[in-house]
Amino acid sequence: MKLCIAEKPSVARDIAKVLGATTPKQGYMEGNGYCVTWTFGHLCTLKEPHDYGPQFKSWNLFSLPIIPNSFGIKLIPNKGVENQFKVIERLVEECDEVINCGDAGQEGELIQRWVLQKAKCNKPIQRLWISSLTEDAIKEGFASLKPAEDYKNLYLAGNARAIGDWLLGINATRLFTKKFGGNKAVLSIGRVQTPTLAMLVQRQKEIDAFTTEEYWELKTKYRDVIFNAAIDRLKTLERAEKGLEYLKVNPFEIVSFEIKEGKEKNPRLFDLTGLQVEANKKYGYSAENTLNYIQSLYEKKHVTYPRVDTTYLSESLYPKIEGILQKMHPYQDLIAPLLEAPIPKSKAVFDDAKVTDHHAIIPTEVPPSQNLSREEKLIYDLIAKRFIAVFYPECKISNTLVEGKVGTIPFKTSGRQILEPGWRAVYAKEPKEEPTDKEKEKEEEQTIPEFIVGETGPHDPMIHQGKTTPPKPYTEATLLRAMETAGKQVEDDELRELLKNNGIGRPSTRANIIETLFKRKYIEKKRKNLIATQTGIQLIDTIEDELLKSPELTGEWESKLRKIEKGEYEANLFKEELIQMVTELTDKVVYGKGKVITLQEEEKEEVKEKKKREPAQKKELQSWEETKCPKCKEHNLIKGKTAVGCSDFKNCGFKITFEIFGKKLSDKQLLDLVLKGKTSKLKGFSTHPEAITEGVLTLSDDFQTQLS
């Protein structure tokens, strides 16, 4: 018997169907010589400090750093996890061969290897590696299974990452909490979290320190075209008025007139970060929500594997492109022109050298169904149009540059026209995005007539008054880009691609890092802008060690983890370097000066690690999008305008409205109802059929709310 282990029940069902394992059993499917079982994501985790000795249970400054001789793993303490692990353990014992069907990425490899390690697996192991969950992709994957040994370095990198995060997170968090937390709350420090916060704090300080200054510019209108004086901004109105007087008595003369034809490159296919950036800019979606929507589309077989950091496709995919385009029925008007000739095979799209474990995110041959949520449809639309646009011709443009002068003062203006829209035709019906600089946009839209060098004539000079503006706060879109390039401001796509190896965090973890900063109240959102709170600013100011808060240095660690993945760096060496850093950091902080950080409405968390209690864990579950649906236990919840419900509502049907029997519930009360099955005693019910005004709300066995 061959045992397949998938990462989720829904994925296991898809695999079981293809393999013919159609007999449902407790915790697995069976048939045709296969058993197909599943994990629920992580079943195992690294052991906690108190697992290595009771002396580490309480937080003591002088017991730091905590460095286990060897790192152990344990089951996550949860009844469902324990029961499912027993099923896996038994099947591993009974099978002849294991097929690792985990998520095809570093985290997926780690999840499965830890489970197999915990189950003491000594059977031969094969690896299923697929980029989509369509029936054809699963069949192709099983036809070309790889030895598990091929992915050993991927596991070593994932394990090194987990150990590195443990060493730094556990030790630095206890260290700073005990030294600077004043026994009020946990001060959370993380390998990726802290440098990300440092970037936000740095930007916040630049904005706070900025002093607005007025300036004046000289402009003039000649033949209905606005020209700008090509000189430094004037600091006083007096100088501007003198300049204006000078302009009034001198004619305008054209010095040069140049039209250059150029091309605007096609946009790149999406990687996860690119998709999160676009969804945030266009729809205001958080990085975490976008990840949830794209993950759902992947599991519904409409798109390929989403947790990727490349914008290229494998050359072997080229023969399949036409078939995928033909199946994208809602976009046939845009696709028809492409199918009139062979699909172009450009190196900007197909390049094996730029593809690692997976290719860029593209649609599959399974067209979108009608039961997608509005958000899923919008995310699919972004991916579909980008996929179509890369095969269109480049956009041809003409740039006009005109230089003139009035007396000795030089002037210039420019204009841009689209000669052939090319790929821009794909986006022709979409509303135009708000320009970042409206005035510049206005000038670019000017229709510039034919000028002759040497021509002169009257003009209408004017003064434009402006104010300097502070640096822009980060949005989730710009922060994701900054994390990807370790804080460097990079507009060029090719240069950004080169910097990805030194970015901080991985595409799949960046959303979670941002959410953690919100949860810890180190940052807050004002409209789309991310603002560092006083607690966040004080925490970064307290950390003197540059290693902890430098995006560049954290990017170097990330680069080493990628080298471990490629077999170019030793995982043990990475661990030793972090141990040395943590030891030096501990000595520096323990014997340094102390001060107490003022906390911003920080959640009161126990500094001592008492016996693990459920409520303490649940307190972390403040985000609906990371809370499992209590009914189907597969999909996460999503918050709408009037209710919280299952993200797969059409199939599952679970929903709780914000208002029950005339009383509006708070998020905490709703969370209690979902997680505990009941609320505390509440008052203020006004529309109960039996006129009950107070009591406890509970969830019945069929997941209906009742008041008693």
List the helices and strands and how they pair.
Elements: E1 2-6, H1 9-19, E2 23-25, E3 28-31, E4 34-38, E5 44-46, E6 73-75, H2 79-94, E7 97-101, H3 106-118, E8 125-127, H4 135-143, E9 146-147, H5 152-180, H6 193-209, E10 214-222, E11 225-229, H7 237-248, E12 252-264, H8 272-283, H9 287-299, H10 318-327, H11 332-339, H12 374-389, E13 395-406, E14 409-420, H13 438-444, E15 456-457, E16 460-467, E17 474-475, H14 476-484, H15 493-499, H16 507-519, E18 523-526, E19 529-532, H17 534-542, H18 546-549, H19 551-566, H20 571-590, H21 614-619, E20 637-639, E21 643-646, H22 649-652, E22 655-657, E23 659-660, E24 663-664, H23 667-676, E25 682-683, E26 694-695, E27 697-699, E28 705-707
Structure description:
With 708 residues, the protein is α+β, with helices and mostly antiparallel strands. Helix 5 (152-180) runs antiparallel to helix 19 (551-566).
Count every beta strand, where a strand is a DSSP E run of 2 or more residues.
28
User: Kindly, what is the distance between the CA atoms of the first and last residues, rounded to a whole number of angstroms?
Assistant: 51 Å
Give me the number of helical elements. Answer: 23
| Range of helix content | 25-40%
| Low-pLDDT segments, ≥5 res | 437-443, 602-622
Tell me what portion of residues adopts beta-strand conformation: 15-25%
Q: What's the pLDDT, averaged over the residues?
A: 88
Structural class: alpha+beta
